[in-house]
């Protein structure tokens, strides 16, 4: 028996005593993080927001097995937020759509979430009307039965059976009324329940996971009281994906007690905020680098690749990777790299020959 088959299933139960310490710890970390960031100045805040929003969008799609081009996502976010970033690239219509959904969720977090707004998000995810090879209903709630399955054809395992299609509109009306109502539910707890509630209804033919995570980010923005996103839940969910799906499945087969789910959610949120310390370190090092080299001349390709190195968007840097990303010849890439070596920005690593690669100088 699934959760949604119980009478008044949306009256979730939570053992408050078992989550209060986790919640207090996450709130403390949240306050410390926001205080730290607001002391950094607007340009560094913007850099942190750009890095974390890019990470959130890329990882949310990655959870569904979809790889987005990181450069395109970063460029699309920067352009839509009006941020001056070197090395912007052309973006695809699909990437722009995914970015628009997340920015609408976070930048307009105080606006009510409505059917029409959700349909707009769904439309940008599936603007062609197709999910892979299959035609789906777009910008409308599903009219078919929905199962979450895994395994090869003929050996499928059913993980979840969603509510019947004729129930979806009524279930979504109840969910949205609760989400938009100031009912006194603690805002981080509300983010956890909102995620669970939405994926339990599974209102669309496809894209439910990505939209659930966008709703989560919207509610966390409400909790933070700012449209600026300084940590990425999807990055941590991707790192703990097996537990994510296991706990969702157990909770959806349960009787309405969401304690375990909320505990996992808060632990995930804590790890997400902890991970931001590393992001901030990168942002601060990057800011210090450009201040140190403010009177040194770099071409556009060099600026772009240096920023990408600080952001950790690829592993070891070599000539062929530089040429591919910068869209230049191998000779030009080598000249760019040698120039940065001579300026003390890059250092050649120990590997030689065809394995020759470079990294940022420790003092850079």
Would you write up a description of this structure?
It is a single chain. With 364 residues, the chain is mainly alpha-helical. It has 2 domains: 3-283, Fido-like domain (Fic-like fold); 298-360, Orthogonal Bundle (Arc Repressor Mutant, subunit A). Helix content is 60%, strand content 5%. The protein has helices at residues 16-38, 42-63, 70-81, 93-107, 115-125, 165-180, 187-201, 208-224, 233-239, 241-252, 259-292, 300-311, 319-326, 330-342; strands at residues 130-131, 134-135, 147-150, 157-161, 346-348, 358-360. The strands form 3 sheets. The chain has a two-stranded antiparallel sheet with strand order 1-2. Strands 3-4 form a two-stranded antiparallel sheet. Strands 5-6 form a two-stranded antiparallel sheet. Helix 1 packs parallel to helix 11. The longest helix has 34 residues, at 259-292. 35% of the residues are buried. The model has no long low-confidence stretch (mean pLDDT 91).
């Amino acid at each position: 028996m699934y959760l949604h088959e119980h009478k008044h299933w949306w009256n979730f139960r939570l053992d408050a005593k078992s989550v209060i310490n986790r919640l207090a710890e996450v709130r403390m970390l949240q306050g410390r993080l926001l205080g730290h960031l607001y002391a950094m100045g607007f340009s560094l805040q913007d850099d942190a927001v750009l890095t974390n929003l890019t990470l959130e969008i890329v990882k949310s799609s990655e959870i569904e097995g979809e790889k987005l081009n990181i450069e395109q996502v970063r460029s699309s976010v920067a352009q839509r937020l009006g941020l001056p970033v070197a090395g912007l690239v052309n973006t695809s219509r699909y990437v722009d759509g995914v970015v628009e959904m997340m920015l609408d969720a976070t930048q307009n977090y105080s606006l009510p979430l409505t059917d029409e707004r959700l349909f707009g998000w769904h439309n940008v995810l599936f603007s062609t009307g197709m999910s892979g090879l299959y035609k789906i209903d777009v910008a409308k709630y599903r009219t078919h039965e929905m199962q979450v399955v895994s395994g090869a054809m003929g050996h499928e395992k059913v993980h979840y059976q969603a509510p019947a299609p004729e129930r979806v509109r009524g279930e979504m009306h109840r969910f949205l009324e609760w989400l938009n109502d100031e009912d006194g539910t603690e805002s981080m707890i509300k983010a956890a329940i909102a995620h669970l509630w939405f994926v339990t209804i599974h209102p669309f033919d496809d894209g439910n996971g990505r939209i659930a995570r966008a709703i989560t980010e919207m509610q966390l923005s409400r909790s933070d009281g700012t449209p600026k996103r300084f940590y990425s839940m999807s990055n941590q969910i991707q790192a703990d994906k097996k537990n994510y799906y296991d706990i969702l499945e157990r909770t959806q087969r349960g009787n309405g007690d969401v304690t375990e789910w909320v505990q996992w959610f808060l632990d995930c949120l804590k790890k997400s905020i902890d991970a931001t310390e590393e992001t901030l370190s990168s942002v601060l090092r990057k800011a210090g680098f450009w201040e140190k080299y403010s009177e040194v001349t770099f071409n556009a390709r060099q600026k772009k690749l240096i920023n990408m190195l600080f952001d950790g968007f690829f592993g070891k840097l070599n000539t062929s990777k530089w040429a591919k990303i910068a869209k230049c010849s191998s000779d030009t890439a080598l000249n760019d790299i040698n120039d940065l070596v001579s300026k003390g920005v890059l250092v050649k690593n120990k590997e030689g020959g065809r394995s020759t690669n470079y990294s940022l100088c420790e003092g850079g």
